[in-house]
Amino acid sequence: SYYLKESKGSRRWLLFLEGGWYCFNRENCDTRYDTMRRLMSSREWPATRVGTGILSSQPEENPHWWNANMVFIPYCSSDVWSGASSKSEKNEYAFMGALIIQEVIKELVGKGLSTAKVLLLAGSSAGGTGVLLNVDRVAEQLEEMGYQEIQVRGLADSGWFLDNKQYRRTDCIDTITCAPTEAIRRGIRYWNGIVPERCKLQFKEGEEWNCFFGYKIYPTLRCPVFVVQWLFDEAQLTVDNVHLTGQPVQEGQWLYIQNLGRELRNTLKDVTASFAPACLSHEIITRNHWTDIQVKGTSLPRALHCWDRSLHESNKNGKAPLKGCPIHLIDSCPWPHCNPSCPTIRDQFTGQEMNVIQFLMHMGFDVQKMAQQQGLEPSKLLGMLSSGN
């Protein structure tokens, strides 16, 4: 199933892949079926849905894509959009994420996609990883069907995970605590997951799990992809077993969190089009506040617009970047929420909103010590934090 909002006057199509973690063995798929049925079956899906963020048809909420044809593909395959296995004797569940995308494309061709100029395959979280895994395959599928003129692009939101060392190593018991590499390694076998050929060739047999990690698959992609990633992604911290429960953070955790931001920033340095705010959050492009977040004075819709223009211009002439229209935007400040446009944080217990300084204190941030390390007066550091410099 999928949801479609047609916009007859537009030759731009936006296909959105929903996210929602995954399951990788019989036990945790059974649990998922019991507790999150809508992520495993279309039976109770509503007849219509309202698009928000980049799927909104309101120009105020979605300045550059509001009048595109919008397709929302719900996530019911639990396989990071990679599976290609039907239900069988030994497997009670079908995992068909990769095939679902192909079928939707086939059907949309008859509904106007055949005359599209641009197809943007977007997704958040597991859907963001799904974009990296499927964008080239979608382009190849359309080429084989004879639609070479359609420009296929990807927009991956919160799906650029690191296969880093966990803060605390745990055995792989459930989806949340299992180290990302181990979960995907098991998942691929369970789902009969497929990864793009060009990425697969970079690794030896049995090592295909590497292609689920953005920084490893990105260099192999042919289609242009815009990567949106919070530097302190909550899902990444969860799989790394850093749990921010409202207790002050221990120094080891605090250093781990800062290091995560550095590692992530590093993996994005060669990504042409990227937007990475130093916030603690997860997913953004379908949030209605997605226009508020800025990196170095540029909002995400504006950066996407600049990217559109740069692809349009580079088709015409060389690759000269557009003046005043940046597409590589990565925060350089080192702490969660050191960017003043980050989404509001709430205390998990009281629900109270917190400003940056309250949040950092709440996390056990030691202003005196940090100021000393940076060679600053404590009051100067506080001033810089609240202004976001």
Summarize the structure.
The protein is of the alpha/beta class. The chain has helices spanning 26-35, 97-109, 126-144, 180-191, 197-200, 214-217, 234-239, 251-267, 300-316, 356-362, 367-374, 378-387; strands at 3-5, 12-17, 69-73, 118-124, 151-157, 225-228, 232-233, 273-276, 280-281, 294-295, 298-299, 328-330, 345-346, 353-354.
Structure write-up:
With 389 residues, the chain is an alpha/beta fold. It folds into two domains: 3-343, Rossmann fold; 345-388, no CATH class. Helix content is 33%, strand content 13%. The chain has helices spanning 26-35, 97-109, 126-144, 180-191, 197-200, 214-217, 234-239, 251-267, 300-316, 356-362, 367-374, 378-387; strands at 3-5, 12-17, 69-73, 118-124, 151-157, 225-228, 232-233, 273-276, 280-281, 294-295, 298-299, 328-330, 345-346, 353-354. An eight-stranded mixed β-sheet has the order 1-3-2-4-5-6-8-12, with helices on both faces. Strands 7-9 form a two-stranded parallel sheet. A two-stranded antiparallel sheet has the order 10-11. The termini are far apart. The model has no long low-confidence stretch (mean pLDDT 91).
